[in-house]
Amino acid sequence: MQQFICETCGLQYAPSEAPPDRCFICDDDRQFVPPTGQRWTTPAQLAAGHSNAFHQLAPGLISITTVPRFGIGQRALLVQTPAGNVLWDCISLLDEATTTIIRALGGLKAIAISHPHFYSAIATWGRTFDCPVLVHEADHEWVAEPDHHLDHWSGDTRELLPGLTLHRLGGHYPGSSLLHWAEQRALLPGDTLLVTPDRRHVAFMWSYPNYVPLPAAEVERIGGRLAALDFDAIYSPFADRGEIRHDAKAAVARSIERHIHGPQAVERRQ
Asked: Rounded to whole angstroms, how far apart are CA atoms 17 and 29?
């Protein structure tokens, strides 16, 4: 019995004698199975050829990225506060070096996940740091390894620690959520909204790899929720997308306008 990890999306499954027949994340229309077919690895095999890199993004914010790139290439974000540390989103590799570094930084009070594409090895991370892993109950069907550390929270908001609040906005997935860091006036949105390569806009998509945008009415609804939050920065889940470090709220408003009314409408208003 061993755990198998999908090489395409990075999702780790519960222990079994043989790899699953399929990865239900990749079979979903939001994701894809590559032309080469479904491929699997194990935690030991992954650790043998990969490691995690730590980078300071801002005071109290550290990114953790697996190198060479694995799965969809996301990074986890370690948020450090006086009340404790929270890991936002997750990655598949948890090796001894990563465990040692995080424990030296104070361990984890909680892990919170934006949506199923970043579930990766959440049960392993929860067990290792003996902390709750918050996943929204609207996405419970996508959990590949049930565990008592998983906290299937409900509703539209959940305070993690003082100044750190989860907001379920939906859209990309029914339970798609972001983390609002009030003290730093920052959003950690996962794929609920994604920083674009120009770092002046964000995108709202039902499927990012398959280029399926959200309906305009859904983006307008999400925009109403975002308008109520105070933020100036957005930190992407992908290092190559980076961050919008200033005037992020204006960038979001501009992006919503463009999504709903088209670029011509934005140009006329400018």
From this structure: 28
Rg (CA), the chain: 18
The share of the chain scoring above pLDDT 90, in percent, equals 96
Q: Helix (H, G, I), strand (E, B), or coil: what is residue 136? A: strand
What letter would DSSP give residue 251? H
Q: Give the pLDDT confidence score for residue 217 in this predicted structure.
A: 97
Residue carrying structure tokens 């999400």: 222
Paired strand residues for 80: 85
Sign of the Cα torsion 83, 169, 142, 37 reads negative
Weakly modelled stretches of the chain, pLDDT under 50: none
Residue type, 40: W
- pLDDT of 186-241, one tens digit each? 999 999 999 999 999 999 999 999 999 999 999 999 999 999 999 999 999 999 99
In the beta sheet, which residues pair with residue 235?
Answer: 243
The b-or-e profile of 16-31 (16+ CB within 10 A means b, else e) is eeebeeebbbbeeebb
Q: Which residues contact 244 (CB under 8 A, 6 or more apart)?
A: 195, 199, 200, 202, 233, 234, 251
Mention every residue, 6+ apart, whose C-beta is less than 8 A from residue 27.
33
Q: What pLDDT, on the 0 to 100 scale, is given for residue 267? A: 60
Nearest partner of 239 among 77, 105, 79, 31, judged by Cα? 77
Q: Which of 97, 71, 50 is nearest to 5 (CA)?
A: 71
Buried-exposed string 183-197: b where 16+ CB fall within 10 A, e elsewhere: ebebbbbbbbbbbee
The single-letter DSSP state of residue 261 is H
Residues in CB range of 51: below 8 A, 6 or more apart: 66, 67, 93, 95, 97
Three-class DSSP category at 234: strand
